[in-house]
Design brief:
Blueprint (H helix, E strand, L loop, with lengths): L1 E5 L5 E4 L5 H7 L17 E6 L2 E3 L9 H5 L2 E3 L3 E3 L3 E4 L12 E12 L4 E7 L13 E5 L6 E4 L9 E7 L5 H8 L6 E8 L12 E6 L3 H14 L5 E7 L9 H8 L3 E7 L9 E2 L2 H8 L7 E6 L1 H12 L8 E5 L7
Parallel strand pairs: 1-7, 14-15, 14-18, 15-16, 16-17, 18-19
Antiparallel strand pairs: 1-2, 3-5, 3-7, 4-6, 8-9, 8-13, 9-12, 10-11, 10-13
Helix pairs in contact: 6-7
The structure holds flavin-adenine dinucleotide and FE2/S2 (inorganic) cluster.
Flavin-adenine dinucleotide (FAD) binds next to strand 11, strand 12 and helix 3.
């Protein structure tokens, strides 16, 4: 057993040599930030101040050799080889939320377009899942590895979980969900997970950037704001390939009803006559906002979109600590 001490919070916990430092932190109720837990997203990166860590195989995708040399580590993948002193900014507002494994039933399956399905999961009995708007769960089926999906509904009735699932070419689990999963089937979920959640302790205007099914957690965030009466100015940009990929009309409806909510759909490859924005979604944000220094920005969707947004937005004054993202796999640097 080794001891890991976070020099920022002063908190310490024990870790054995066969679990990741992140797993040990989570088991000890310490909220280090994380996303995919698979070495793809880079959200669990930390500075090792003292001590030695190691990886089971190659250095994971989300960290460069240079960063390893500079004393950085990917906490979801590395294991302690000695006592460790590290520096991580812990997430305070998820502190009281317990990670739960819960059984659930596929209550309603609704095909939203040719490649996105809306899946409602019902948690039976008196159980419910406490979570923050924007977080995700792992969906578990005995025949597949757990898969991450963002929760698309606000945490109001947390015994029902809504997911928006895009079918991945040759993807095992998403093809099963799309083609074979039946209503009333039993599944499990584990969550809530992730540091991508709505920060309520701010009055800054907000820019929400979604790519494809990255709209799911954005929907949860906006629904939550509407439910609790938060009237901060919100600008939603939803980037997709073509018009049918805008699989829900709800953001357009929000913008009609709520004067603080603005919606800009952006198509990258429109096949039809389209009078709206065309191009990459992050470029559309920059058409409207030359200076991003006074905005809180949430970006969610394919890694390339999140990476492009992060890299270009910082050049337009975005404050790194006001940028929150969930990349649906793989790493990015900023
Ligand atoms: C934090 C988080 C939240 C997510 N939320 C959502 C969500 O709300 N909705 C949603 O539709 N998806 C979401 N995803 C992505 C989703 O988890 C994957 O699409 C899913 O795990 C694919 O499972 P599969 O078994 O079908 O594919 P696999 O059988 O695992 O993969 C098959 C092939 O597709 C590739 N592949 C897998 N995933 C992707 C991908 N996302 N993009 C491109 N290629 C891929 C693999 O490398 C492999 O070559 C999220 C991912 C993360 C990390
Ligand atoms: S949580 Fe570690 S790389 Fe994603």
């Amino acid at each position: 057993m080794f001891t890991v001490e976070n020099q920022i919070s002063g908190k310490a916990f024990s870790v054995s040599d066969d679990v990741s430092i992140l797993d040990a932190a989570i088991s000890s109720g310490i909220n280090f930030p994380y996303g995919c837990q698979k070495g793809f997203c880079g959200q669990c990166k930390a500075t090792i101040i003292e001590g030695e860590v190691g990886y089971d195989g190659d250095i994971p995708n989300a960290i460069t050799a240079q960063e390893v040399n500079d004393g950085m580590a990917l906490l979801c993948q590395c294991k302690a080889k000695t006592d460790i002193k590290l520096a991580v900014s812990e997430l305070d507002s998820v502190t009281d939320i317990a990670l739960k494994m819960l059984p659930c039933k596929a209550e309603f399956i609704n095909k939203l377009n040719d490649d996105v399905v809306q899946l409602f999961l019902k948690i039976p009995g008196s159980e419910s899942l406490q979570y923050l708007a924007g977080q995700y769960i792992d969906l578990i089926h005995p025949e597949f590895e757990p898969r991450a999906f963002s929760i698309a509904n606000a945490p109001v009735n947390s015994s029902t979980i809504e997911l928006h699932i895009r079918i991945v070419d040759d993807g095992k689990f998403t093809n099963y969900i799309f083609n074979e999963l039946e209503e009333k089937s039993l599944l499990k979920i584990e969550g809530p997970k992730g540091g991508f959640y709505f920060r309520e302790d701010s009055d800054m205007p907000i820019i929400l950037v979604a790519g494809g099914t990255g709209f799911a957690p954005i929907k949860a965030i906006v629904e939550h704001m509407i439910t609790v009466g938060i009237e901060r100015e919100v600008f939603i940009y939803w980037g997709v390939r073509d018009e049918p990929d805008i699989y829900m009309s709800i953001p357009e409806k929000w913008s009609r009803i709520h004067k603080n909510i603005h919606f800009v759909p952006v198509l990258s490859e429109p096949n039809i006559k389209w009078n709206g924005r065309v191009g990459f979604v992050h470029e559309s944000v920059l058409q409207d906002f030359e200076d991003l220094s006074k905005y809180e920005i949430y970006a969610c969707g394919p890694p390339i979109m999140v990476e492009s947004a992060a890299n270009t937005f910082v050049k337009h004054g975005m404050k790194k600590d006001k940028f929150y993202s969930d990349a649906f796999e793989f790493a990015f640097e900023m």
